Amino acid sequence: MAHPGIRFDRILYGGDYNPDQWPEEVWREDARLMALARWNTATVPVFSWARLEPEEGRYDFGWLDRVLETLEADGIGVCLATSTASQPAWVDAKYPDVLITDANGVRRRHGGRHAFCPNSANYRRLSTGLASKLAERYGARPSLRLWHVNNEYGTICFCGSCAAAFRRWLQRRYGTLDELNRRWYTAFWSHTYTDWSQIEPPYSHGEGAIQALRIDYHRFQSESLLRCFVAERDAIRRRSPGVPITTNLMGTFFNLDYHRWAEEMDVVSWDNYPWPDAKPEEVAFYHALHRGMKHGQPFLLMEQSPSQQNWQPYNKLKAPGRLRLQSFQTIAHGSDSVMYFQWRRGRGGIEKLHGAVVEHGGDENNRVFREVAEIGRELEALGTATLGGRTPARVAVLFSWESWWAIRCSSGPSADLDYPAAVRSFYAALHRLGIDADVIGPNAPLEPYDVLLLPLLTMVPRELGRRLTERVAQGATLVATPFTGLVDETDLVHPEGAPGPLSEALGVLVEETDALMPGERNAVRWLDGPKADARWLCDRIRLRGAEPMGFYEAGFYAGEPAATVHACGRGRAWYLAAFLQDDGLRAFLKRVCAERGIASPLEGGAEPPEGVEVTRRVQPGGETLTYLLNHSEEHRKVRLPFEGTDLLRGEPVGPEVDLPPLAVRIVRR
Ligand code: GLA
Ligand code: ZN
């Protein structure tokens, strides 16, 4: 990539700014307030296509020049957005093929946003045209820190242009129709294709029985949208060399394979809108997911709300101190920015009730503004101390969009299977243990990790199976669950049965998989420990060299092996035939990590108390910063195995650390 490990010269602090919704008199006041809030970066213009290009080929940049000059006068830099996520009315009227078509085959009418077809030649031409013009005009501007292409890509299209492009994509992928029929298993229900033209996107009233088609359509649409990003990116890069280019992602967003996307992005950025009752480990999981997309390279937080959302069923305010905690949690997990949506609450449109730094009729005296400004002061005082740090994780949980698509497309074995929740439960268990963990994609390097966890990783192509087996043979510990390694890239069950290419490493064969009914209980009774509750699925397995470590407690298979371990080269591979629940999972992972000498960085490797988050970043110079965050409303105490300095307060801290409610400590040893 053009920018291996981008380095910023400060923590980017700022967010989305929509000056085109306001008269010019307000802009001066905005810049004054931004300076007071210690904003250093305003993201502009995210949704201004109609103002920038009021008719085809006629551009109006005068107003944007004045916006930038106003910001620059107060020392505020810019994250320049390309405005292509919401096309103007004239585009849709003139080029109806730009409008997206839904899964029922219905073409959208003009309106909303994200309503463009990624395979519309007109959309590609017009969007890259606008991006090029912006880059020509502003690409070398000293205040420009970052490019923000489009906004939250992700709506998929089922139109005629997409169908035609899909067929070409399939021809490139499979070469012949025979090969496609074989890989897609179309002998099923007489679905064999005899001409490429017969293949259609998986309309909701069309083909739903061939999972491979549905999975390939997800791949194709993810790639189509990625081509839109790449087209804008390349147009910008030619005219604005050296300025990093990103687009804002959305966590576990189903439609796009973000691991593929990250390969094309200079730096990953994402939008964090936790539910009011989200647990710290859930939010931490999303940060880890984005950090893993570029193999540990710091990411950026592009958006969070300073107070509330407008689109949740109940839009809670963040109580005093919560925004600060959320912001430092972001940095603790690998971000080099803290940014907001949005600067000023709008007066109209469906987001008029969305939280903002400046309230309706507000100024610097409002509560939210004061909290934002205080965070700004703290981040400014940190300077470059936290920038570029990397999480020193030796444990990784695999997350695969393709496995997620495969599980969603699968009929059976259980309606309760929730792939992201499954992966999150593994991450959450580690988080509660205070163990640094990464969330990585199937193509990530495996060498940094001594423990590799593969919850519900159903799609394991041969090559991935080979890489995982090799890493275990070199000495790593592997943990698999029901459904791991069942199918190949086109969702064909491996001929040898599950766990397919991991059979040799795991030393088991899955014979049958039972789904637990709602409320039905089963458990794993460990040979050498308390029992662990199961959920979702219980495999009946045949041992092929693995040693049983736990047995089923209930069902007609009570007493049969429910968890096994197998020596593989210098490593060990565990098969959890039953998917474990939270407490049992935590105890199991604690043991697996302890066997590899992995524990929390607290004294004695202790588990942090309830609500306390502990995580680390190793700075480019080699020093380790330990982050301690108290998410609870109670005082908590932890013990560090050293004495250090709290970077936020400049005071000595440790070995015993007292953490008041919502406290944050960044401890330099
Ligand atoms: C998203 C979008 C923003 C805004 C916020 C509101 O993240 O990128 O434009 O709509 O949601 O929460
Ligand atoms: Zn389309």
List keywords for this structure.
669 residues; Rossmann fold; Immunoglobulin-like; eleven-stranded mixed β-sheet; 31% helix; binds alpha-D-galactopyranose; binds zinc ion
Please give a structural write-up.
The protein is of the alpha/beta class and 669 residues long. Among the domains are: 160-213, no CATH class; 395-595, Class I glutamine amidotransferase (GATase) domain (Rossmann fold, 3-Layer(aba) Sandwich); 607-668, Golgi alpha-mannosidase II (Immunoglobulin-like), CATH 2.60.40. The protein has 17 helices and 27 strands. The strands form five sheets. Strands 10, 11, 12, 13, 14, 15, 16, 17, 18, 19 and 20 form an eleven-stranded mixed β-sheet that branches. Strand 6, helix 9 and strand 7 (269-271) form a beta-alpha-beta unit. The longest helix has 29 residues, at 211-239. The protein is globular. It binds alpha-D-galactopyranose and zinc ion (ZN).
CATH architectural name of the domain at 395-595: 3-Layer(aba) Sandwich
Low-pLDDT windows of residues: none
The fourth-level CATH homologous superfamily of the domain at 395-595 is: Class I glutamine amidotransferase (GATase) domain
The CATH class designation of the domain at 395-595 is: Alpha Beta
Mean pLDDT figure? 97
Largest sheet: 11 strands, mixed
Helical region count?
Answer: 17
Taking the alpha carbons of the first and last residues, their distance comes to: 34 Å
What is the beta-strand fraction?
15-25%
Annotated CATH topology of the domain at 395-595:
Rossmann fold
Q: What's the count of strands? A: 27
Overall form: globular
Q: What structural class do you assign from the helix and strand content?
A: alpha/beta
Bound molecules: alpha-D-galactopyranose, zinc ion
Q: What share of residues is helical?
A: 25-40%
- Supply Rg: 26 Å
